[in-house]
Amino acid sequence: MGHPLVKSDGPAFARPSPLAVVELLKPITWFAPMWAYACGVISAGQPFEGRWLEVALGVLLAGPLVCGTSQAVNDWYDRHVDAINEPDRPIPSGRVPGQWGLYVGLIWTLASLAVASALGIWALTAACVGLALAWAYSAPPIRLKQEGWRGATAVAACYEGLPWFTGATIMASALPDWRVCLIAALYSVGAIGIMTLNDFKAVEGDRRMGIRSLPVQLGVERAALLACVMMVIPQVVVVALLIAWGASWHAIAVALLLIAQLVLMRRLLREPRKQAPFYNATGTSLYVAGMMVSAFALSNFAGTA
Known about the structure:
single chain, mainly alpha, 14 helices, globular
């Protein structure tokens, strides 16, 4: 029997419309992993000639497939929470009826593995890790999202580090340079802050359903301060590393983007709940711009020890 607030338990023969499936996969969320993948491609410092198909398949893998899978799986296992927080979403509203939310997650998982297998062993390995985290994040009994640190870390890795690693491995046809891996890891750590801000919109529903997100555990004000610290420190380290590696102009650019974020953070910390959407549209954009600047800096190191 379905949850009383969820309208998805319709007739078994009912099928969602293509538009409802696209909405379930949330195209707006694909940008972050696709951007991180592009950073990985650039950071490898390899020529694009004759490799456009690989690049395009990687974009498809990072965004519509792996990220789309994570969105479908999350909405399926969160359908009861969404019935409280966002009842107009495809599953609780009944526009994706019956078990179709689960079916879409399974179909997209298989499609992701098929595309990843065509891109080489390291791309397939990264995809397997990303898909495993996507299911573990939402599905019981693991349900990483039930605890704030584990959940935010898993999502940050899937949105930033793994796509960056995938793009770099595809272009390098091997494990990337250690500096590429280090910078990707640092931006993944910073993305934990971004994920924390994203949890602000679901605080009431999370509390009612026993999900211990960081805003629930710490309170919105302390969680906002933590998010800012988590975003700032890795970028400071990136600036220091770029200077140490001789990429001073790139370091200055990342530092200026960070200073602009600090200005916006002052506004965020005054009213965290109200200003979180504003910061996600502005400060987060500056954060990901710094990722691309760092990727171009790394591209200059290709082939060096």
